[in-house]
């Protein structure tokens, strides 16, 4: 896709030639960082609870997205009118950063939210955002995660975590929720 974008840009056929770099950046961050970290977070969740290793994909991917999705916050929203949230009212004209991870652990929506349960109906989570900006790549991301995790488990069913969970380091990022590294022992 990046090659095609570059080709049309070089041929002068792109309606927005100077946007090619922007599109490339968007696709790399939105399309790569996200899926990579979903796979890492899912493997960590599975290895921390090996009893669920044999659970069924693809339904499992929805629960991985809910339990430890790779994106911390939605795109920034702007209130055009006062918005009541619980006991608080956000005035009109404010920027709002919405924590997708917190929404996905809302006990009113998902009972026992801190529990990874690959059999729960996890649809309705906010890992891909909500509304008009809902993730364009969601079907591709679901497919990639399903294929990658399925292949990994098929090939290395005895995989274990090769680190003390307390030593794993999470990235210090506003947007991305993912690990610096995930050492595993394949067999
Ligand atoms: C697990 C993987 C992914 C996650 C968790 C994810 C999550 C998100 C989130 C939270 C948003 C913002 C939604 C909002 O503010 O309401 C978004 C937007 C977007 N995503 Fe993804 N994404 C993933 C994979 C992908 C992939 C693979 C692509 C493309 C190849 C992609 C392309 C985009 C684009 C273009 C937007 C902007 C849509 C708009 O503003 O209308 N994403 N994504």
Automatic annotation (TrEMBL):
Q: Which InterPro entries does the UniProt entry name for this protein?
A: Cyt_P450 (IPR001128), Cyt_P450_B (IPR002397), Cyt_P450_CS (IPR017972), Cyt_P450_sf (IPR036396)
For this UniProt record, the keywords arranged alphabetically read as follows:
Heme, Iron, Metal-binding, Monooxygenase, Oxidoreductase
Q: Name one Pfam family in it.
A: p450
One GO molecular function term?
A: iron ion binding
The record's comment on protein family reads: Belongs to the cytochrome P450 family.
Q: Give the protein's recorded name.
A: Cytochrome P450
* Highest classification ranks of the organism: Bacteria, Bacillati, Actinomycetota, Actinomycetes, Streptosporangiales
């Amino acid at each position: 896709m990046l090659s095609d974008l570059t080709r049309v840009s070089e041929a002068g056929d792109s309606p927005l030639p100077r946007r090619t770099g922007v599109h490339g950046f968007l696709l790399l961050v939105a399309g790569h960082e996200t899926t990579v970290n979903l796979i890492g977070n899912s493997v960590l969740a599975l290895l921390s609870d090996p009893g669920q290793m044999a659970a069924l994909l693809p339904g499992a991917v929805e629960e991985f997205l809910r339990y430890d999705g790779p994106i911390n916050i939605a795109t920034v929203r702007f209130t055009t009118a006062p918005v009541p949230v619980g006991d608080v009212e956000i005035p009109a004209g404010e920027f709002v950063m919405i924590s997708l991870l917190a929404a996905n652990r809302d006990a009113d929506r998902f009972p026992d939210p801190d529990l990874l349960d690959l059999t729960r109906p996890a649809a309705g989570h906010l890992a891909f955002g909500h509304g008009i900006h809902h993730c364009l790549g969601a079907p591709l991301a679901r497919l990639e995660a399903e294929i990658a995790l399925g292949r990994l488990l098929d090939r290395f069913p005895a995989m274990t975590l090769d680190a003390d969970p307390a030593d794993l380091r999470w990235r210090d990022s506003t947007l991305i929720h993912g690990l610096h590294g995930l050492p595993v022992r394949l067999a």
